[in-house]
Amino acid sequence: MLRKYGQVMALLLLIAVQVAAILLSAAMFVLAFGLGAVPLFPPQVRMVRALAEQNRRLMRRWADVAIEAPYLPKPPPPVPQSDGMYRSDRTLYKTPRIPAWNDRWKWMITDPGTWRDDLWLVLDPLVKVGLLPILLLLPGRGLRVYAVWSRLLLDATAASRLAGQVTHLQKVRTLAVDSQAAEMRRIERDLHDGTQARLVAIGMTLGAVEQLVDTDPAAAKALLTKAREASAETLTELRTVIRGIHPPVLAERGFADAVRALAMDSPIRVTVDVDLPHRPEAPVEAAAYFAVSELLSNAARHGEATNAAIDISTKGADLRITVTDDGLGGADPSKGSGLAGIERRLAAFDGVLVLHSPPGGPTTVIMELPRVLPEHWAGNLPKLPRWKAALVGLLWVTAWCPMFPQGIVAGVFKTFDIEEKTWFLALYLPQPWQWPTILAMIAIGITMYVLAIRIPACHDSSRWWAEVTPRRLWFRR
């Protein structure tokens, strides 16, 4: 309780800071837009955003209320044109300083979060004064109420979240395109430097054979032997290039067996532990396979490791891969060890790479690809509670009674004036009440069937669709 009162007192003391910030912001705002001192606007925005971010941190720590920043993504740095100049609207500049400043200015002034922060700064001291009784009498509840107010103005909006997702997708697309282009250049280089050179040599050897076949058959036979050996080596190189594009074992036997085959071919001793009930999608398998291959290559080539361990596991719909080696350590993605390329591969699937490589080793790399496994077997989807399952079962068992006997069948008896009433409730009622009762029974039955379907669907739509979707079409059975 004393801690809560201390937090309330700190919150109230911040009113003085906010009042000073309001006066300073008002002066900077007037100077920026009234007298043309435009450079004062960005510092004013940064000051207010700093106070708003401090409030978000305090509410997360004191009231356990997470408030996400609502700001639009920052503009990218200016890109020079083909002539080396930087364009900002219709003006060209030699340096990127002014275009970058203009972009930041437009970003700040057009961001709705900027004006929501200003509104929060003006109203927040008044809200604190209005909540003063509950903050003093019930500090815990008062902090939660104040956190709700803060989240009302400082939380992210749907537009800011969508803009952030679009920016993230653009970055991922750029990384995927760059990675694909680098892969194509690697394949072209391998074919040009290796296979193409060998094929040219084979052609030259066969040309020499044509000249010697009549004059020196023995020499021609020796050259044919060399050509056959060169063709075998060329075929081996082609198979190596093909494995670099998409290994056949990966397409035929899946990710787990492909990693086991990779461990067997590695020059170091590798143990593989796999807990993967089903295969991921082909692009996910390829990205994960080449990531593991690059890590084993780094461990043997740069880390001088003698032993490595690979652990492949799942957590719900997430794929988690851990590679550990006893090498020298000190791995750094900025030094061109291939880790940057692995990050680009994983970024296409929102994957993350965590590296722990102290000098002297060991090196541990954890790669996690979120939501890349089929969710209908992932096991992390919430199951239907027992009382809901019992209610659904009861609805399915009893819905037929009002729907058919008391509704449709009773309506048929009433339409054709069948005198037999049996156990149809509506037929025992007075004449004006019979048809309304029959229609009400049919409506009750339909409602019960709809509820029996909607309760599981609303509880978890992903699981429901996965369970009701047929594995194959009926006409292909």
Mind explaining what this structure looks like?
The protein has helices spanning about 1-35, 40-60, 95-110, 110-130, 130-135, 140-155, 160-210, 215-245, 250-265, 280-300, 340-345, 385-400, 400-415, 430-460, 460-470; strands at about 85-90, 90-95, 270-275, 305-315, 320-325, 350-355, 365-370. It is of the alpha+beta class. A five-stranded mixed sheet has the order 3-4-5-7-6, covered by helices on one side. The longest helix has about 55 residues, at about 160-210. The radius of gyration is 35 Å and the shape is extended. The two termini are about 70 Å apart. The model is unreliable at about 470-475 (pLDDT under 50).
In short:
The protein is an alpha+beta fold and 477 residues long.
- The number of helical elements comes to 15
* Sequence of strands across the biggest β-sheet: 3-4-5-7-6
What kind of sheet is the major sheet? 5 strands, mixed
Beta-strand segment tally: 7
Coarse morphology: extended
Q: How would you classify the helix and strand content by structural class? A: alpha+beta
What count of structural domains?
4
